[in-house]
Design a protein that fits this description.
The complex is a heterodimer of chains A (762) and B (72). Chain A is of the alpha/beta class and 762 residues long. Chain B contains one helix and four strands, in the order ββββα. In chain B, β3 and β4 form a beta hairpin. The chains are: A alpha/beta (762), B alpha+beta (72).
Chain lengths: 762, 72
C-alpha cells in the first residue's frame, strides 16, 4: 500500500507550530546574538569583537569605520576612554585582557576614513548652537555636525583645533588635529566669545532651534536639573549634561544621548520617543573558555602600537561567541545558522500559505538527535523545533512526501513482508521478546540470528522474536498516524506473546518502545552484562572508540553498559571529544540520509573525524554509516557473537537481508515452509546500473515489478540506436523506468531511473 | 492561441513501440504533479499512447520541477 502523496500545491490550511509567546521564549534561550562582554560593557556599544577581527586581518580602515560608528571624535575618545570593556574581557580571567583602548587608538591613527568628509552633505533646515566648551560640548558638537545640522559653537575658541585641544588635554596634537579636520569639513562655525555671558546667550539664543550649553555654562546661567536619560534641562529648554559626570566616556555617551534628543526636538517629538536601547547592558553570552590559554598583552615598544603590534594584539582576541551547538553539529554547520535564526525561519516556513517553502530541506535535514540540547548552555533543542515543524506541515498537507517516502515504504516493508512475530518454539507465551530493530536485520542478519539463538537458549521462560520497525521512521517523518499504526501493530504482537519483557537490540528502538507504556524494555547489552557474554565473544585487537548512539543520549546507564561489555571482550576504548551525551548523529537519525544525503554524509564524516581508531557502535545504523565512510566499524553484537557483517549492503541488499532472515528463521527454527523469493526469471545488472539504483533509491524489487509488467502487457519500446528495450511502470507515487536487453530468457539491466510526475497523452 | 509546450522531444524515428510495432512520433503529452499540469511534446506511440520519458529528462528538468513544486 503506497502512502498517499499530498493532493495539491494549492492547499491553504494553516496551523501555527508555536504561539508567538512560545516562539519568543524559545528564541530567548539562544544566546548566539548576545553582545560580547566588551561590547556589552561599552555604553556606546562599540563592536569591539568585529573591530579586533578587522585589525587582526590588517584592515585598519575597516576597524576605523567600526570605531567611527560610535564616536565622531575617534582620536580623542581613544586617547581618553576609561575603557570598561577591558575589565570585562574574558582573557582577563586567565591573563591579560585585550588592550582595546590601544587598539582603538591604532585604528584611529592608521585607518583612513572612507565615504568622504560629509562637506557636500545636504544640511538640515533646523539650526543648532552650542554655548561653552569642554569634553561634553566637544563630543556633542561632533555628533550634531555628523547629523548635518547647521551648527554654531560659541566658546573661547575661534576654531575647531583650539576648541578640541582644550576639551581633550590628554590627547596628542596630531589626533586632535585630525578630529578637528572632520568638524571643519562638516562646516561647523566657531564664534569666539571672550566673555561667554548670560547676556550674550540671551541675545543669540533666539537665532537657533536647538540649544545646547556646557554644564559649566549652565551653572553660569543659574543652573537647572538635567534629566540624564535625555540630557535635557527642561526648566531652561536646553540640552546639557549633569555637572558631576566628568569622565571622557561619560561625555561621549552623554553627547550621543543628547544628539538623539536634539533629533527628537527638531522633529517636534517628545525626547523619549523611540530611543531604542542605550548604554551598557548585561550580556547573557556564553563563551566556552576550554582550550583558551593565558596570554599577555603586546607591549608597544614606542609608547603607541605600530601597525604590526596592533595586528598582533588584536589577534589575541578570542572572538567571544556562543557556537557550542554549531561546533558539534554538521547540520548547523552546513546551513550556517544558529538555532535562534533557524527557529524563526522554520517557523515562518511553516506559516507560509502560498509561495516557496525555502526551509523544507533544512528542517528535514536535522537528525533530530538532540546533541544541541546537551552542548547548549541553555539546553536549546533544535530537534524539537524541526520535529514539530514536520508534524505541523504534515497536518496541514504541506509536507512533500518525496524526502521521506522511501524510508516510510521501508518501514512498511519491515512491518509487513519482513515482519515476523513468533513465540519461542514450545512456548505459547514468553517471558521475553527479542526486538533487534529493522536495521540490525537489514545490515547484520547473521548477528541477529545468533543473538536470538543465544538468548532463547540461555534465558528461562521463553524468548519470542519480533522482527519489525519500532516506528521511529514515521515518528521522524512527522507522520503521526503511521506511527500510531506501528504502535498498534507492535502492541498487538506483544500481547499475543503474553506481553513479555522486551529485549531491545537498538537504543532508539528501546527508547521508542518504552513510550508504549506498561512495557518493560531492557537493552541486550544489559542482558549480556548480567548473564555473561556468549562463548567466542571477542573484542577488537586495536584500541577503538565507542560511538554513542543518539538513542542513548541522556542514558548514562546504557553508555556505561556497552563500554563495560566492550572491555569484558578485551577492547581498549579511546574517548573522543564528542562522546557520551554529546555524541553527534551518524546521519541516519531524523531520516537525513533519505532527505538530504549531502548533510547525512557530512554528519558521518564528522563522527569519524574524532579519532583514527576503529569505531564500536551499539546501533546498527551507526555501524552502517560509519563503515560507508570507509572507517572500520563494528556493532557490539557482531563482536559478542563473532560475526562480521562485512561491507555495508546497498538498499536492495538491506531488503533482501530482512526477507532472507525471516525465511531462514521460519524454516530453521519454526519449521514453517515459506514461498520461494524467486520472481521466475533471471535479472542481472551492469555494475553501473546497480550503483545508479542505490544512488537513485531504486530497489531491485522495483525493477522486477517493471519487468513483470512488461512481460504481462508487452508495453515497452526499443531504442533503435542502442538496441536496448525500455519499459516503465507506475508503482505508487513513482514511475520507474528500466533500460535492459533480453538475454537467455532473462534480462540484463543497463540503467534504471524514476520520476514522481505522472505523464499521459493529451 | 497556439499550444504552449514546456518541452519538446522529437524521436526522429529512432524509437519503436514493441507492443504495436510502430515508430514513436512526436506527440502531445502532459506531466501532472501535485495538481499542476505541464503540456509537453514527447515521443508517443500513435497506436497505444505509450509516452516515453528519456532518462536525461527525468533526471534533469522533471526532477527540478518536481522539487520546485514539492516546496510550494
Amino acid at each position: 500500500m503506497a502512502i498517499e502523496e499530498r493532493a495539491s500545491t494549492h492547499v491553504y490550511h494553516q496551523k501555527r507550530m508555536f504561539t508567538k509567546e512560545e516562539l519568543d521564549a524559545l528564541e530567548a534561550r539562544c544566546v548566539h546574538e548576545e553582545p560580547p562582554y566588551c561590547s556589552a560593557a561599552c555604553p556606546l556599544r562599540l563592536d569591539a569583537r568585529a573591530m579586533a577581527a578587522a585589525l587582526a586581518a590588517g584592515d585598519f580602515d575597516g576597524a576605523l569605520a567600526l570605531y567611527g560608528k560610535i564616536t565622531p571624535l575617534p582620536h580623542i575618545l581613544a586617547s581618553g576612554c576609561e575603557a570598561p570593556c577591558r575589565k570585562k574581557c574574558r582573557l582577563g580571567e586567565l591573563g591579560e585582557s585585550v588592550d582595546l583602548p590601544a587598539l582603538e587608538h591604532a585604528a584611529a591613527r592608521f585607518g583612513q576614513r572612507t565615504g568622504g568628509t560629509g562637506m557636500l552633505r545636504l544640511k538640515k533646515k533646523k539650526t543648532a548652537a552650542v554655548f561653552g566648551s569642554g569634553a561634553f560640548a566637544a563630543f556633542y558638537t561632533g555628533e550634531i555636525a555628523r547629523k548635518a545640522y547647521p551648527l554654531t559653537v560659541y566658546s573661547g575658541f575661534e576654531n575647531a583645533a583650539g576648541f578640541l585641544a582644550a576639551a581633550a588635554p590628554f590627547a596628542d596634537a596630531e589626533g586632535v588635529r585630525r578630529d578637528a579636520e572632520s568638524l571643519e569639513a562638516a562646516g561647523v562655525v566657531f564664534v569666539r566669545a571672550d566673555a561667554l555671558t548670560p547676556e550674550l546667550y540671551a541675545e543669540e539664543r533666539e537665532k537657533y532651534d536647538i540649544l545646547c550649553v556646557s554644564p559649566e555654562f549652565l551653572s553660569l546661567l543659574g543652573g537647572g536639573e538635567v534629566n540624564e536619560a535625555f540630557m535635557l534641562c527642561e526648566s531652561r529648554g536646553v540640552i546639557s549634561a549633569p555637572a558631576d559626570k566628568k569622565g571622557v566616556l561619560d561625555a561621549a555617551f552623554g553627547a550621543r544621548k543628547a544628539a538623539l534628543t536634539a533629533d527628537r526636538l527638531a522633529q517636534g517629538l517628545s525626547p523619549d520617543n523611540t530611543r531604542g536601547e542605550e548604554g551598557a547592558v548585561e550580556t547573557r553570552l556564553y563563551t566556552n573558555m576550554k582550550g583558551v590559554e593565558s596570554s599577555r598583552s603586546v607591549k608597544p615598544a614606542g609608547g603607541l602600537y605600530t601597525r604590526d603590534e596592533a595586528v598582533r594584539e588584536a589577534g589575541r582576541c578570542i572572538q567571544c561567541r556562543c557556537d557550542e551547538c554549531i561546533k558539534g553539529c554538521a547540520y548547523l554547520q552546513h546551513y550556517k545558522k544558529y538555532p535562534k535564526k533557524l527557529t524563526r525561519e522554520i517557523y515562518n516556513n511553516v506559516n507560509i500559505i502560498m509561495g516557496d517553502h525555502m526551509m523544507n530541506k533544512p528542517m528535514n535535514a536535522c537528525a533530530l538527535c538532540s546533541q544541541c540540547s546537551v552542548v547548549c548552555p541553555n539546553g536549546y533543542d533544535v530537534a524539537e523545533i524541526c520535529l514539530r515543524a514536520r508534524r505541523t506541515m504534515v497536518d496541514t498537507d504541506k509536507m512533500p512526501l518525496a524526502p521521506h517516502e522511501f524510508a516510510l515504504n521501508d518501514m512498511e516493508f519491515s512491518n509487513t513482508e519482513a515482519f515476523l512475530c513468533r513465540p519461542q518454539p514450545g512456548f505459547d507465551k514468553c517471558r521475553y521478546v527479542f526486538f533487534p530493530g529493522c536495521q540490525a536485520a537489514a545490515i547484520a542478519p547473521e548477528t541477529v540470528e545468533r543473538a536470538y539463538r543465544d538468548l532463547s537458549a540461555r534465558l528461562p521462560g521463553g524468548v519470542g522474536l519480533l522482527l519489525g520497525c519500532c516506528g521511529a521512521i514515521a515518528e521522524w517523518a512527522g507522520r503521526v498516524s503511521i506511527y500510531n499504526d506501528a504502535v498498534k501493530l507492535l502492541d498487538d504482537s506483544f500481547a499475543r506473546l503474553g506481553n513479555p519483557e522486551i529485549i531491545a537490540g537498538c537504543p532508539t528502538c528501546a527508547r521508542m518502545l518504552a513510550n508504549h507504556g506498561n512495557v518493560k524494555v531492557t537493552g541486550i547489552w544489559d542482558v549480556l552484562d548480567e548473564i555473561g557474554l556468549p562463548a567466542g565473544a571477542k573484542g577488537l585487537e586495536k584500541p577503538a572508540a565507542m560511538h554513542d548512539s543518539c538513542g542513548a543520549r541522556g542514558d548514562g546507564h546504557t553508555q556505561s553498559a556497552v563500554r563495560r561489555l566492550a572491555e569484558k571482550m578485551g577492547c581498549t576504548l579511546v574517548e573522543t571529544e564528542y562522546s557520551g551525551d554529546s555524541s553527534p548523529c551518524c546521519g541516519y537519525g531524523g531520516l537525513v540520509q533519505y532527505a538530504n544525503r549531502e548533510v547525512a554524509r557530512e554528519m558521518a564524516q564528522k563522527c569519524v573525524s574524532g579519532t583514527d581508531a576503529p569505531y564500536i557502535t551499539y546501533c546498527m545504523a551507526c555501524r552502517d554509516r560509519l563503515a560507508r565512510e570507509g572507517r572500520e566499524s563494528r556493532h557490539i553484537l557482531e563482536l559478542a557473537y563473532g560475526s562480521d557483517a562485512g561491507s555495508p549492503p546497498d538498499i536492495s541488499g538491506k531488503r533482501y537481508n530482512r526477507l532472507a532472515l525471516k525465511k531462514r528463521l521460519l524454516n530453521d527454527i519454526w519449521k514453517e515452509t515459506t514461498p520461494e523469493m524467486d520472481c521466475g526469471f533471471a535479472i542481472d545488472y551492469l555494475p553501473e546500473a546497480r550503483a545508479a539504483m542505490d544512488d537513485r533509491m531504486i530497489l531491485e524489487s522495483d525493477v522486477t515489478a517493471v519487468l513483470q509488467y512488461a512481460r504481462e502487457t508487452g508495453e515497452a519500446i526499443q531504442d533503435c540506436g542502442t538496441g536496448l528495450i525500455i519499459a516503465r511502470r507506475r508503482l505508487g507515487n513513482v514511475t520507474f523506468w528500466v533500460k535492459y536487453e533480453e538475454r537467455d530468457g532473462g534480462y540484463l539491466v543497463h540503467s534504471a531511473y524514476s520520476h514522481r510526475m505522472n505523464v499521459q497523452t493529451r | 492561441m497556439a499550444d504552449k509546450n514546456y518541452y519538446t522531444i522529437d524521436p526522429e524515428g529512432k524509437l519503436r513501440c514493441m507492443k504495436c510495432g510502430v515508430p514513436l512520433v512526436k506527440g502531445k503529452a502532459k506531466f501532472m504533479y501535485l495538481d499542476n499540469g505541464f503540456p509537453v511534446e514527447l515521443p508517443v506511440c500513435p497506436v497505444c499512447g505509450f509516452v516515453y520519458v528519456p532518462e536525461e529528462l527525468a533526471l534533469g528538468k522533471v526532477l527540478s520541477v518536481e522539487k520546485a513544486l514539492e516546496d510550494k
